[in-house]
Amino acid sequence: MKESSAIPTEKNLFTPFNILAGIIVLMGLTITVLRFTKGLGAVSNLSDYNPWGIWIGFDLLVGVALAAGGYVTSAAVYIFGLKKYHFAVRPAVLTGFLGYLFVVIALTYDVGRPWRLPYPLLIQRGTTSLLFEVAGCVALYLTVLFLEFSPAALEWLGLKKARKLAVNLTIVLTIFGVILSTLHQSSLGALFLIAPSKLHPLWYSPYLPVYFFISSIIAGLSMVIFESSLSQRFFHHKMDKAHIEGKDQLVLGFGKAASVVLAGYFAIKVIGISAGNNWHLLSTPYGIWFLIELLGFVALPCLLYAIGVRERNLTLIKQTSFLAVFGIILNRLNVSLIAFNWHLPPEERYFPHWMEIGISLFIVTVGILVFRFIVTRMPIFYEHPDYPENH
Amino acid sequence: MIYTLQEYMTKTEGVTYILMILFIVAFILFWKFLTGRDEEMIDADHFSQEQNSAKEFHHHKQ
Hints:
The complex is a heterodimer.
Chain A: H1 16-38, H2 40-43, H3 54-66, H4 69-79, H5 89-111, H6 119-122, H7 130-157, H8 160-168, H9 170-190, H10 208-234, H11 241-275, H12 285-310, H13 314-338, H14 354-375
Helix pairs in contact in A: 1-14, 3-5, 3-13, 3-14, 4-5, 4-9, 4-10, 5-7, 5-14, 7-8, 7-9, 9-10, 10-11, 10-13, 11-12, 11-13, 12-13
Chain B: H1 5-35, H2 38-61
């Protein structure tokens, strides 16, 4: 695809999506001013009982899990040698990079005083703290993702020497990225190990770090399938031949991998119930909710992926990716919000303020807008004509 | 009935080990289900390729 064709020729700014996005951005900016001038109490329902709301439960935990497509795809292509999926690396890395970037931005809303964000790395005493480990890994991995994404931006800017340097770092960055992801994806689960009395026994487990890491692989694989089917619909005109022809193989391959990982995840979740001897809790209301998550959003997508791969039914695999992604979102919300503080009376339970939801919506919308800005300008879905099969 | 920690651990660990064995067996069956048609597909691909090359051969011969 020629570079000139990647630049939009018709500019109609007042599309329904742009108008809706504009309204959300204006609302988000207004709430942002309120948050940083009037404090947490003015815009959130957070309290001493519930210090972590949806800005942590959704923006951070879900955001990090769904951004796992970057390390999963890079590892598949550069470490496991599955070169046939090479075309999928750039979109996945871009999604991962933006995911982590907006996770960090969302975190500033929760912790406040953004200029103190580097404090865990510079001024602190808690090197044994999991939050220190998460902060270090996320900061480093965001840098890694930025460097992994940089060849596309440098091609767009025409900086050939800098691009060559960035491309030479690919393998080192991929290995570093996998190590960092393994560490912080599991550490996010480990954060809840400190609260065995607050988290419902069906979700609490000594294996929480393992659950979070394994489910992040499912989230990464499913997000790549989900995002590729959306991109095919909205950015089809930006894709080159390799991208269009390879998409079906990608959906089948990643669908098969997701099915296998989901099967393993289902097994270790059941083993978790057995190891904690929590069978009797399955008949309680929380138990039924747990079974809905386990059977409806782990076992069912596993089976549907398997049927889709067996029957070569791409539509079924794409639809299942949505179910699997929703399952991961539900799991993170269950652990951080729904099954957390489960013993408190209803009036003490947390429900997000509409302005908290507004900020989450604002961050997701800005993420989509930045993604659209980049893919309509930089060589993400096609190879730059000056660097054929060389990135 | 369970009265001691020893009995509790024996029961819990015992059930867990049985489950692990069942999952290993189930996983082999699941893998066979997942990849069951891969060989058929590969065979079908080879067959269609052979047919195409045979057609091309006859086409060139004529």
